[in-house]
């Protein structure tokens, strides 16, 4: 609309100038000099008005372009609320500048937000430009290299030669491991390299994570959970042993004191035998607990070989049909053959443990038409082999989900809680993972990922 109005106004002025030129020629031919001079002056006046209009618009256009070019968005354009094209054009310029200003403000706000996040990360982040100058480093980087000037990549040569070589590596992206000096001792770190392009310039970004610190946190949490479970199991076994031992001791002392006065009856002897049987049972439970702990601590090394995981699943389903007649087993194979490099005996033991857990859950929940699906497939994203074991039981509550893979944790009577924790350990030794997906009243799905 603005440009149509502007074009109309310019066209009208040009038409008037051309018309005045014809009139000027006519007066010259008729030798009407006074009229010709007047028309000639009128032509110059119209040309001057046209040039003023164009110069004014050109000035505003240059002012707008300079604002964009020099990133000066504080400029304003006068709007007189008239119907002239210049007024409409100024409205468009001002609207565009306001939008640029809002965009820049939003961009700066987002940049400040992401910088704040990067500063608070527990991972050290440092970025270099192509000349080796540090263009960004967060607080963790400064804490990690306390007391060392780190404004250039060359400054890291004195800190750690390994780290300096990683920073100078010409590979585009990758993950590296190295040792850096710590406050008290050397520390192992993981360095991940990324490449970013900012305003056409390549920026090398490195994230540095402490390996040992994270591993120690996980180990401490695992040991705390294990100690808690072991303490619970041992106290459950020892408490009745101590109580019954005191009872038997008291009975024997009584019989000893009255040995010359009366002969022990069968009932009194039975009263002694019963607690001794309980003590023997508890001691046997402790021995079983110790044996299971030994199994966890001394798991044999995996014997890797190539095998068809589909065939393994088929053999497993055939044996389960006869072992668990009250449960329907269904085998689902995505393709005829899926090869896996692992220990087949250990993988079969993992499947057995998961299926046994699923069957016991189905028996406990009393699910109608109890069924277990064993599905051999491949991950759609990574194209890796996957075995899914799905039951239609009552599922597992959130508290048990967080502890189900902890050694000796169990919610079932007369179980030691070693099967699933041992299975996860076996999968790790075979370069795989064992995961659980479950919800109450929706069944459970254990997944073996290779």
UniProtKB/TrEMBL annotation:
It comes from the Bacteria. InterPro entries: BphY/WalK/GraS-like, HATPase_C_sf, HATPase_dom, His_kinase_dom, Sig_transdc_His_kin-like_C. It is an enzyme of class 2 (transferase). One of its GO terms (molecular function) is protein histidine kinase activity. CDD domains: HATPase. Its EC number is 2.7.13.3. The chain crosses the membrane at residues 12-28, 34-51. Keywords: ATP-binding, Kinase, Membrane, Nucleotide-binding, Transferase, Transmembrane, Transmembrane helix, Two-component regulatory system. Residues 229-450 form the Histidine kinase domain. It catalyses: ATP + protein L-histidine = ADP + protein N-phospho-L-histidine. GO terms for biological process: osmosensory signaling via phosphorelay pathway. SUPFAM superfamilies: ATPase domain of HSP90 chaperone/DNA topoisomerase II/histidine kinase. This is histidine kinase. It comes from Flammeovirga yaeyamensis.
